[in-house]
């Protein structure tokens, strides 16, 4: 089996698996928008980095690494998740195509937990990509169905970011998807503006 690069490269920390998956379209809605899932290797890396720690490496199932059709389906699922979350945030409901896409993606088996001989919690899945994307779809369905969580979904205040995140802070006033990246940049920019004035 061909070795898959496990170097972390995808952003996490949006508060839910489905929101982290939506972030694979980086800088959504900005001129710098970037596709982070251009091919099967990238999709397999996302599954490895962001899904549960699977014993079955992504791409090890029959048929090898995810193909172009699976990548297109994953990107379509990502856009359905985004549309579903946006509809929930605006008090609307997703259209029938979005609902069908989410329901279909949520149907496959999810990774199964088990205890290893050493007593460690491990996960396995016959089709790791399908199993983790099923988790993504189920997470999005549950998230959008909970009004208390929907009320805590915010867009990052950085104008060039476009990420949606779940604000789990006590006061619910978090402004940035990441204090280390977007928040830090905004504070440095504000400091430069005050200093130059």
Automatic annotation (TrEMBL):
The signal peptide annotation in the UniProt record is: none
Q: Give start and end of each Zinc finger CGNR domain.
A: 152-194
What domain of life is recorded for the organism? Bacteria
Instruction: From the record, give the transmembrane residue ranges.
Output: none
Query: Which organism does this sequence originate in?
Result: Actinacidiphila epipremni
**Pfam families from the entry?**
ABATE (PF07336), zf-CGNR (PF11706)
What is the protein named? Answer: Zinc finger CGNR domain-containing protein
UniProt xrefs under InterPro entries:
ABATE, ABATE_dom_sf, Znf_CGNR
């Amino acid at each position: 089996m061909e070795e898959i690069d496990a170097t972390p490269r995808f952003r996490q920390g949006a508060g839910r698996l489905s929101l982290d998956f939506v972030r694979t379209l980086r800088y959504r809605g900005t001129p710098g928008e970037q596709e982070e899932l251009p091919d099967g290797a990238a999709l397999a890396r996302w599954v490895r980095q962001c899904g549960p720690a699977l014993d079955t490496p992504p791409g090890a199932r029959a048929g090898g690494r995810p193909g172009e059709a699976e990548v297109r389906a994953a990107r379509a699922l990502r856009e359905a998740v985004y549309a579903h979350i946006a509809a929930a945030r605006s008090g609307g409901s997703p259209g029938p195509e979005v609902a069908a896409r989410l329901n279909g993606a949520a149907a496959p088996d999810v990774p199964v937990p088990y205890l290893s001989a050493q007593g460690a919690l491990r996960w396995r899945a016959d089709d790791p990509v399908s199993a983790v994307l099923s988790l993504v779809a189920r997470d999005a369905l549950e998230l959008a169905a909970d009004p208390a969580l929907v009320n805590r979904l915010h867009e990052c205040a950085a104008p060039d970011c476009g990420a949606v995140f779940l604000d789990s802070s006590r006061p619910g006033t978090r402004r940035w998807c990441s204090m280390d990246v977007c928040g830090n940049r905004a504070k440095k920019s504000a400091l430069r503006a005050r200093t130059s004035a």
